[in-house]
Write a structure and sequence with these properties.
The protein has 181 residues and is an all-alpha fold. The chain has one domain. It contains 6 helices and no strands. The longest helix is centred in the first third of the chain and has 28 residues. It is globular and about 55 Å long. The chain starts with a helix and ends in a 6-residue tail after the last helix. The model has no long low-confidence stretch (mean pLDDT 89).
Amino acid sequence: MKTSTVTLLFAILATATQVAVFGAVVLAVGGRLSKPVARVRHRIASVVAPKGLALAALVALVSTLGSLYLSEIAHFPPCRLCWFQRVAMYPIVVVAGVGAIRRDANAKLTAAILAGLGACVSTWHLLVERYPTLEGTSCELNNPCSIKWVEQWGYLTIPAMALSGFALILVLLAVARPNSK
């Protein structure tokens, strides 16, 4: 399969993720203002809550496999900020996955800290891509963090895709109730 096809698939997944995060924010805010929205929010939460940790692990796994595809198959060398995002994303697969299997609510905090840190790095990476003068000396000269290896729809780059994954993981962890049945 061609790299352009795979990156388009990643972009579609990231966009769906952004829509889900936006919807969750609307439901969270709207549910406090409107009883019908609160009922919808409660229905969705009752379905997602018991599976929240497993879904967060799934999002992290897809993100992990996507980053490995981009570096190992598409041969896009990860920059220093990409590595920091990987350091945050990869363990979430194990932490949230094991937490889901064991129905351990304590895994939520560890996974949320990792996702929050990863989201911060992704946000900084997006700024560096948009404003290369921010790069400074933190990245390598031969592999700068400002290179856009992928850009879909004029805004969706690799760090934007990573940020989308971290955001959805945070939403899923916020709703997750692994001990509920």
